[in-house]
Structure formats: structure tokens, C-alpha cells
Amino acid sequence: MSETTAGRRPRTDAARNRTHILDVAERYFTEHGVTGSLDALAKQAGVGAGTLYRHFPSRDALLAALLAARDNELVARRDAVRTAETDPAVALDGWLEALGTWATAFDGLPDPLRAAVTEQTSPLALTCQGYVTTTEEFLTAAQQAGRARSDVRGRDLFLAVLAISWVREAAMADAASPAGLGSLLRTGWATPPA
Amino acid sequence: MSETTAGRRPRTDAARNRTHILDVAERYFTEHGVTGSLDALAKQAGVGAGTLYRHFPSRDALLAALLAARDNELVARRDAVRTAETDPAVALDGWLEALGTWATAFDGLPDPLRAAVTEQTSPLALTCQGYVTTTEEFLTAAQQAGRARSDVRGRDLFLAVLAISWVREAAMADAASPAGLGSLLRTGWATPPA
DNA sequence: CGACCATACGGAGACACTCTCCGTCTTGTC
DNA sequence: GACAAGACGGAGAGTGTCTCCGTATGGTCG
After folding, report:
1. Any idea what the Cα angle at residue A116 is, between residues A129 and A166, rounded to 5°?
2. Closest to A109 measured CA to CA, from A177, A62, A72, A76
3. B134: in domain
4. Structural domain of residue B73, as residue ranges?
5. Residue in B92, B147, B177 closest to A156 by CB
6. Model confidence over B161-188: pLDDT tens digits?
7. Same domain, B137 and B84
């Protein structure tokens, strides 16, 4: 019953290679960003290009596997926010910040994530879909409490977090920008007319 | 006195090629986005790759030249907003919308623009710098009228417009998203606690 | 008008990256 | 220990960037 879809257990050398590639990829993408050369990554892992591509047919597949390792962490933060916060607006805020951190795990990550939101064929699409749904839940709660605008939608908010994460990478040089950009999303630039 | 820096007037065939390349590039980027193949663009323009790269040493240089042709339009909108609007918040809003339209002139344009904001070596950097300054002017006016939060800065607002433009390209499928994302920047998702 | 030089032109080719294909080698089983 | 099933590696095809240099052209001056 441990095998719902697969035929048989993978060969041990294959399994070892797979995890080893993931280890190296984690470091490699951290250092070079998500657009780093995959052939170079394969070489660094000491495997042939064919092996890399057999395990992970595309860059997105590799990223999805890498992000899967972070799933626990993000789900944990979701639950922590959910149970600790009574104010649904603060909860939503906490969730969005967790999302922002997740989306900047590697340099350039927001790009494939954004693409995945619209192209459901990507291995990242499933991952994103889940988090869009979570965002929707937090948002709905905040809206029902009258703490969030009712014309905002979960998917847009998720995309907006990606957008801010995307631009944050460029604004790093400026120390004050990251926080400023984040709060822009919550409050906007405008002041309500007295 | 018409030549402040250059030595002599360019050869006529060179000038003709330059404008012809720009014409074709305008169409080409509109159709294929800013990441389209430059060699293919050269072929479509009926010139060798060398000619293309001599006139425009990099993709950014080509984009900068293309955007320069839109300068008049954007400056006109700036002036129109400036003179027509008495409310500085509405003026800022109008300017940001003009910027957003400008930043989506071609698919994928926000990417090089964002890079140009931080890398002052890009030919696009000068262009961006000017518009950041304009954004700052509108913002300062709105702040002095108490219509914009005082902790927001011009550069961040400019970057935020790029960010929304960036994500808007992905959200196109969903009809309501573009407008929703834009207003998010002005108002934020939060409702002030009664 | 013809010659001459500065300048521009074209496209072959060096280099980088992605991804596939297939001959060879390993693993696990009988 | 032998035999599939499956994994491995890396050569190579396809695509894109950008440079280099032999050739062609435009503009000028005698």
C-alpha cells in the first residue's frame, strides 16, 4: 500500500544519485541563482548530463523537488500563524511574509513561480496551486472580519507577493527597501483623505 | 555646434540601417517579447549579425533606443497629468499608470528595466533614472499634501510599478486581475480597522 | 571623374547552454 | 554466476550570443 502509482522501488544507485544531485543543486542554485547552467551543475555533482536530466527532466522539475524539501517548513509556519493569531489580518500578514521568504529561497525563483501559476503543465504548478489556496483561506477569513478589501482575490495576492519578492532581489542594495516594499502591499502608498 | 560629442555625421547607409533595424525590432519584440533571438531579428531585418551588434552592442542598447522613441509620449503624459490635476494623489496615480503602460510596451520588458535600476552600466539605466526622479517629484508633492505615506520612497514606488507590470503579464488570462493588481499598489489589501 | 581612405557590411565561427540518444556498465534476482 | 531491467556517461545536434576580419561602399579631394 506504500505504492499508489509507482511500479517498483528505485535502484539504490539511482536513489543515491537523486539525493546527491539535490544536495549539490541546493548549494549550486544558492550560489548561482536558478538560471545557473545545468550542465555545470551536473559536472559539479560528478554525474553526466543524461543522469541529471533523467532524474529531473527540466529545470522546473528540479526546483519543484528542491522546494518540496521546504514544504514542511512552510506548512509549519502556516499552522503556527493559524493557531497563534486571533486577528485574521495579522494572520494573513504573517502568511504573506512566510510566502515571501519561501519565494526568495533562491535568486531568480519568482520567475519560474510566476510562470507556473499560469502554465499548469509545470511541475511547480501543483506546488503553487496549493499555496494560492492557502492564501485564499487566510484572505477570506480577513475579509469576513472586515479587515481586508473584498475586491482582492487570493490568486492576485499570491502573484503580488511574487512580484514584491521579484523586485526585492533588485532592491537589496538599499537597506530600507525590502521592508518598505512589503508594507506597500499591505497598506498601499496612499493615505486615506483624513 | 550640433555635435557635442561625436566626431562626424554617420554614413547614410549606416543611418538607414539603424532606423530600419529599429523599425523591424519594434515589430519583432512586439511579437516575440524582449527575449527573442537577436540573430533571428537581424535576419528578419535583412542585415548581418555584425551590423546589428555594431549599431546596438547589447539587447539593452536596442531596447533603450526603442524606448527613446516613446520618451515624447511619456513626457507628454507627465505634463498632462501635472497641469490637469490639482489633487496630487490623483496626479501620482495617473503618473504611475502611465509608467505601467510604458513598462509593458513589450513582453518581458520589466526584467531588463529592473536590472537597469541597480546596474548603472546599462544603457537603460539613464532612462530609468529619469523616471525614478519624476516619480519622486509626484510622490513628494502627494506627501506634502498629506495624501501619501511619508515612509514610501520614489525608487521603491518605481520598482513596485515594475513589479506589478511584471506580474500583470502573467495575469492577463484573468480579466479582472490587471486592474486589481494596480489598485493593490495604491490602497493595499488591508482595510483600516473601522 | 577617378582614386583613396574611412567606415560599414556580412556571415563564418568560437563559445555557451540545453537536451537527447545510445553504447556500456550496475543492480538485484533467480 | 548469469541474465534482464534499468541507470550511467558523455558525445553531439540544435539554438543562441557575440566577435572578427575580408570585402564592399560612401564621401571627399585632386
Report:
1. 105
2. A62
3. yes
4. 58-187
5. B177
6. 999 999 998 887 776 777 889 899 999 9
7. yes
* Min Cα–Cα distance to chain A from B10, Å: 37
Residues whose beta carbon sits under 7 Å from strand C: A 11-13, 35, 37-40, 49-50, 53-54, 57-59; B 7-8, 10-11, 13-14, 17, 46-51, 53-55
Which CATH number does the domain housing residue A69 bear? 1.10.357
Q: Average pLDDT, whole number, for chain B?
A: 93
Do B160 and A164 lie within an 8 Å CB cutoff? yes
Both B69 and B97 in a single domain?
Answer: yes
Q: pLDDT at residue B2 above 80? A: no
Picking from B160, B167, B191, the nearest residue to A146 by CB comes out as B191
Residues B15 and B93 in one domain: no
pLDDT tens digit sequence for A14-60: 999 999 999 999 999 999 999 999 999 999 999 999 999 999 999 99
* CA A37 to each of CA A25, A34, A44, B148, B176: distance values in angstroms, whole numbers, following the listed order: 11, 9, 11, 44, 37
Residue A45: count of CB within 10 angstroms of its CB: 19
Q: Which residues of B touch A109 (CB under 8 A)?
A: none
Residues A47 and A76 in one domain: no
User: Within 13 Å, how many C-alpha atoms sit on residue B138's CB side?
Assistant: 32
CB–CB contact B160 A167 (8 Å): yes
Residue A1 has a pLDDT of 44
Assess whether A52 and A124 both reside in one domain.
Answer: no
User: What pLDDT, on the 0 to 100 scale, is given for residue A194?
Assistant: 59
Residue of chain A nearest B171, judged by CA positions: A118
- How do residues A110-148 score in pLDDT, each as one tens digit? 999 999 999 889 999 999 999 999 999 999 999 999 999
Strand D close to B83 by CB, under 7 A: no
Number of domains composing chain B: 2
User: Which residue from A89, A152, A191 is facing B148, i.e. has the nearest CB?
Assistant: A191
- A79 shares its domain with A46: no
Does residue B114 share a domain with residue B24?
Answer: no
Query: Which residues are CB-contacts of B163 (< 8 A; sequence separation ≥ 6)?
Result: A163, A164, A166, A167, A181, B110, B114
